[in-house]
Amino acid sequence: MNKTVQVKGLDIGLDRPKICVPLVGRTTDELVIASKKITTYDIDLVEWRVDFFQEVEQLDQVKKTLVKLRSVISKVPILFTFRTAKEGGEKAISDEYYLELNKEIMQTGQIDLVDIELYTPAPIREQLLKKAQLYDVKTIVSNHDFDKTPPKEEIIARLQQAEVLGADISKIAVMPNKPHDVLTLLSATEEMHRIHTNIPIITMAMGGMGLISRLSGELFGSCLTFAAVDQTSAPGQVSVNELLPILNIINKNIGN
Ligand SMILES: O=C1C[C@@](O)(C(=O)O)C[C@@H](O)[C@@H]1O
Q1: Which residues are bridge partners to 78 per DSSP?
Q2: 90 Cβ below 6 A of ligand 1
Q3: 38-91 pLDDT, tens digit each
Q4: Which label site among 66, 119, 163, 237 has the fewest CB atoms less than 10 Å from its CB?
Q5: Is residue 201 part of a domain?
Q6: InterPro entries given for it (predicted)?
Q7: Inter-residue contact 189 to 160 (CB < 8 Å)
Q8: CATH number of the domain residue 99 falls in
Q9: For residue 204, what are the CA distances in angstroms to 42, 170, 195, 237?
Q10: Closest ligand 1 atom to the C-alpha of 47?
Q11: How much is the average pLDDT of 164-173?
Q12: Does 81 contact ligand 1 (Cβ within 6 A)?
């Protein structure tokens, strides 16, 4: 069983959850300034949330900006994510452009991981998964529910579906409306990790109510957690400086 994924020397899936910081700038300048700051922190990955970028519909501009970001972010993997409006992102684009954007960016050789939404129309999703393999880009197949927390069986089923499709990592983010919803997400995570999967998984309950899920991945089986340097990309993210000591204290004591 190989529940780890290696990217740029980083073993995702082992020990303490990896910390991923989102870049949410709207302009190239904002993004470059933010990435210079982010790389001074003790983090494991950077996610470019390109749906925040105001020139996202001009592929050449996306590519030029990516080259600049890559030259700043040289040591840690870059995850490229266009989060669609229907899954809580900033912008709606056509399925055709979603395909073109992700395909072209994978081909540049400048990114290490790509986020592909589980509910992307099947023919597009399949093409993207194939291209990722071809260009040696690791895939996170993701799903987001910004309104509610689906039942445990449904959370597990979506994570499994991502794995069956060939994801390197499967991910789900849900919104809790009551404390029990957080338990549902954690219980699904624990069961999925223990019994149902051969790949690393990422799960979180969003919002303040779900915060515990962003801290406790090492116990329940979520391999990565998103945290902010200045700006958050989703409700409930805390700052890297607040998160790091908590992850470390869990890591230090978990085997005792
Ligand atoms: O999918 C995720 C998870 C996330 O939504 C979160 O809740 O931390 C943040 C997003 O930037 C990322 O793409």
Answers
A1: 46
A2: no
A3: 999 999 999 999 999 999 999 999 999 999 999 999 999 999 999 999 999 999
A4: 119
A5: no
A6: Aldolase_TIM, DHquinase_I, Type-I_3-dehydroquinase
A7: no
A8: 3.20.20.70
A9: 21, 12, 19, 10
A10: 11
A11: 98
A12: yes
